[in-house]
Amino acid sequence: MRTEPVLVTGATGYVGGRLVPRLLESGHKVRVIGRSIDKLASRPWSKEPGIEMVRADVLDNESLRRAVRGCPVIYYLVHSMNANQKNFAEADRKAARNMVQAAGEAGVARIIFLGGLGEADKTLSHHLKSRAEVAKIFQDSGIPTTYLRAAMILGSGSASFEILRYLVEHLPVMTTPRWVRNPVQPIAISNVLRYLQGCLDNEETAGQTYDIGGPDVLSYQDLMGIYAGEAGLARRLIIPVPVLTPRLSSYWIHLVTPVPSYIARPLAEGLRNPVICHDNRIKDVIPQTLLSCRETIKRALGRIQEHCVDTCWMDAGDAASPEKLHSGDAPYAGGTLLRAGYRVIMDAGPAEVWRPISALGGRNGWYSYQWLWKIRGAIDRILGGPGLRRGRPERANLLIGDAVDFFRVLKIEPHSHLQLLAEMKTPGEAVLDFILRPLDNGNTELQQVSRFVPHGLFGLLYWHALLPLHNLIFRRMLKTIADEIGRTILRGPEPIK
Questions:
Q1: 359: part of which helix (H) or strand (E)?
Q2: Which of 211, 258, 295, 309 could join 157 via S-S bond, C-beta 3.0 to 4.6 A?
Q3: SS3 270
Q4: Cβ(466)–Cβ(353) under 8 Å?
Q5: Residue 318 lies inside a defined structural domain of this protein
Q6: Sheet hosting strand 444-454, strand order edge to edge
Q7: Strands (E), 439-485
Q8: Contact (Cβ atoms closer than 8 angstroms) between residue 461 and residue 334
């Protein structure tokens, strides 16, 4: 094993989460950074020999300096996909400059950066302009930078693939923007990972810019036809119209697919122009078999059917609970942290009670008044939130940072505690806790507690208006959990005072 660690940023994201185990398998020591050590520690590769985990934020200079020290090579795989965030481009610039400063002070020898294809002109999307600007910051720093410009990345769990999948599976007839016929050159995630790893092993790639794409140049409409064929679906009728802008397209994608509009928009804007490779030098430097779009889609569908999706676009997300939810002082809300909860005692051990709790969400639902959850999910989707369509990972065990419908896992202690952060649109910040406490006689106390910090008067009105409904749902959920495991409730449900 090599002695100096390679630094990987964005290690819990779609690409980074798949790159880390490949680097470890090839004998590299890997240092990963993130805002949440708990989220890093929950990844499948976190216990592998050669892994180091450091809490750091690319927007925090001091933490970044500590994280970079001793790493000769940096993989830079973080960027903002939130086109609704007013200053996403400035945040990307600041993060890149912080990295350059920290890397320069630490004597870093190389930076490997994954960006996007797109020619620099006035029609280039804001997102792709920001990616190109980050690349220029690295290239102008004097640190040899390898810049990979990728086209659309296809693979099980990628945002591009999920958009394609849901559109084709749910819409036999589609009105689409005119850019649906623009040429694109998608690339399989496995080929992207091979190029990223190959750059580390090939010194001649230092200081170079390469376009990376698959062997096929086709249109998005062609991709839809290929997907329909591989999924065994009837041919889809696609009607391009001139009035659908990328912004309108992103809203439509938001309503039809699990991918939110703030992610769909930069992806849609990226297809507004032809996205093809003009420089194919990397094929000679890092030779590999490039998968066709048909083979890539076939493999991705197989992975989904086998429930073997290693990483997913929705893995990215903050896994830190807002501090206000841990204190009783929320000045702007009248100094009140609002709480509500019920508890029951069951004639079952914690391991048995834990099973239905760890299976919450997705196809399993929420064990009570599912039609109400669906209405709340639909309202949330219309308001721009994730709704219920995002689902949950197919695997049985949840990890910190996992998305579960419109929640995200903040804390998980098997057979003891599950804490979920609400990511739905609400006038405040909320967490939902399931707490299991073993009792001396072999029984278990199960508590379900909701905490909410309201944002102003509307937040207070929201909480008190929905409190009777929440109490009704909580009581039913606890009863249904007991039914799921075939056990009796000995006491409760009763309010927690």
A1: none
A2: 309
A3: helix
A4: no
A5: no
A6: 403-404, 407-413, 417-422, 428-438, 444-454, 338-346, 489-495
A7: 444-454
A8: no
Please list, in sequence order, all residues whose beta carbon lies within 8 angstroms of the beta carbon of residue 145, skipping any fewer than 6 positions away: 110, 111, 112, 113, 135, 138, 139, 206, 207
Q: At residue 118, does pLDDT exceed 90?
A: no
Q: Which helix (H) or strand (E) holds 433?
A: strand 428-438
Query: Which structure tokens are listed for 475?
Result: 């009581």
Q: Using alpha carbons, list the distances in angstroms from residue 158 to 54, 316, 359, 462, 476.
A: 26, 11, 23, 35, 36
From the list 149, 142, 72, 60, the residue with the least C-alpha distance to 100 is 142
1 within a domain of the structure (yes/no)? no
Query: How far is it, in rounded angstroms, from Cα 342 to Cα 492?
Result: 8
Section 184-198 average pLDDT:
95
Same domain, 112 and 260: yes
For 41-105, give the DSSP string.
Answer: HTSTTTTSTTEEEEE--TT-HHHHHHHHTT-SEEEE------TTSTTHHHHHHHHHHHHHHHHHH
113 pLDDT above the threshold of 90: yes
- Give pTM, 2 decimals: 0.81
* DSSP three-state, residue 33: strand
Q: Are 57 and 235 in contact (CB under 8 A)?
A: no
Residue type, 236: R
307 with 348, same domain: the answer is no
E strand spans, 348-467: 403-404, 407-413, 417-422, 428-438, 444-454
Q: What is the CATH classification number for the domain harbouring 463?
A: 3.30.530.20
| Residue 274 one-letter amino acid | P
Bridge partner list, 436: 446
Rg (CA), the chain: 24
Tokens standing for residue 16:
């980074």
- In this structure, what are the phi and psi dihedrals at residue 300, rounded to the nearest 5 degrees? -65, -40
Compute the distance between CA of residue 103 and CA of residue 98 in angstroms, rounded to an integer. Answer: 8
Domain that holds residue 169: 6-313
Q: Give pLDDT, residue 355.
A: 93
Structure tokens at 125: 């999307």
In a domain, 386, yes or no: yes
What is the per-residue pLDDT for 328?
42
Q: For residue 8, which of 62, 80, 71 has the smallest C-alpha distance?
A: 71
**Close Cβ partners of 121 (under 8 Å, ≥ 6 residues apart):** none
Domain co-membership, 268 together with 373: no
The Cα–Cα gap between 467 and 439 comes to: 29
Report residue 116 CA to chain centroid gap: 18
Question: Distance between CA 158 and CA 311 in Å, rounded?
Answer: 8
Which ranges of 257-349 would DSSP assign to H, the alpha helix? 261-270, 282-285, 293-305
Same domain, 141 and 218: yes
Contact 454, 338 (CB under 8 A): yes
Residue with the two structure tokens 């890539």: 296
Dihedral pair phi/psi, residue 54, rounded to 5°: -130, 130
Q: What is the mean pLDDT of residues 196-210?
A: 93
